[in-house]
Amino acid sequence: MSRLLIAFAAGLIFGLGLVVSQMLNPAKVLGFLDLFGDWDPSLAFVMAAAVPVAAIAFRFAPRPTAARAATTYAAPRIDRRLAVGAVLFGVGWGLVGYCPGPALASAGLGNPATLLFIAAMLVGMMGFAGYRSLAARRVRV
Length: 141
Hints:
This protein is mostly helical. Helices cover 70% and strands 0% of the residues. It has six helices and no strands.
């Protein structure tokens, strides 16, 4: 039960941060990413506030050796798959102004474009899971 409460609290704080920073508004995000057009620097203030807070937290937090609110823990490893995924994530975010967190948080607003993005995101996730399953079977054979 405590894991559920921790997850709920973390999600609530994250969602409130998205609302306050206006990251639920794809036009706001696209305006920030449009460096050579009508640039909106307001999200830079969000980052300027978040980076020092995160830096302090990472500096003083103990290094995890096991999961605290999950059943498994894997230390992060930077490899080709992570780099390609990060690039695809950034390109997708820059094209539509949504990433998964803000999209899910704004799904309750019922915007058809948001719901279409979530549907496409889920199809992509299922497609990747299918690809991994197929690739794993091919390796075993």
